[in-house]
Amino acid sequence: MSIEHVDPGVLTELRDAVGADDDGASALGWPAVHAFEQRHGVVLPEPYRSFVAEVSDGSHAGPPEYGLVALGALPSDYGSDGSGRDLTRPFPLTEPWLWEGDDEEPDEARLASVFDDGSIVLGTDGCGMNWHLVVTGAHRGQVWMVSGEGAMPFGQVTGEPGFAGWVRHWAAGEEWFDAG
Question: Alpha-carbon Rg of the chain, whole angstroms?
């Protein structure tokens, strides 16, 4: 998985998977991607970066269940307005964390960091189950599912933890959780 360079074949595969057949008309374009990156102090990982610039900025078809949201947008069930989000602070997790049902109350600052730091939201499967793409931190380029109960990385079984692996998994009709 390369998060710095994109294979043109991967972009074609992603275009086909989400049904983006409008010749890039729904893409954000490189100037807008560069402006987003400059405004937020990050460089988006590939192939997501090229996907939003050249293929599509969001998709109603999915993944996830309710489609990809536009770059920097939040799903309607996100639970906050996103004003505390900071993409330059590293995503805090390096392993799954289930805080729901834990004997101890989770540290509120760490919990807020899971939702707000170092990741962009890709979309939702509903009920507050949101998919995040890590843009800063040890797991840069990986997709995580973050919900009100916990957070876990995607790709532990498939071996494809990034955006392309996540889309491939969805396009193949596999179960969303990919847990082993």
Answer: 15
> Amino acid identity of 164?
A
Burial bucket for residue 65 (CB in 10 Å: 0-12, 13-18, 19+): middle
Instruction: Report the phi/psi class of residue 58: left, alpha or beta, with left for phi > 0 and alpha for psi in -120 to 50.
Output: left
Residue 179 has pLDDT above 60, yes or no: no
The predicted structure's pLDDT at residue 108? 85
49-100 pLDDT, tens digit each? 999 999 999 888 878 888 899 999 998 878 777 788 999 999 999 999 888 8
Instruction: Decide: 173 and 14 in contact? Cβ < 8 Å.
Output: no
For 61-105, give the DSSP string: S-SSTT-BPPTT---TTSSS-STT-BTTSPP--SS-EE-TT-SSP
Domain 8-171, architecture per CATH: 3-Layer(aba) Sandwich (3.40)
Return the minimum-mean-pLDDT range out of 20-24, 44-48, 106-110. 20-24
How far apart CA 60 and CA 67 sit, in angstroms, is 4
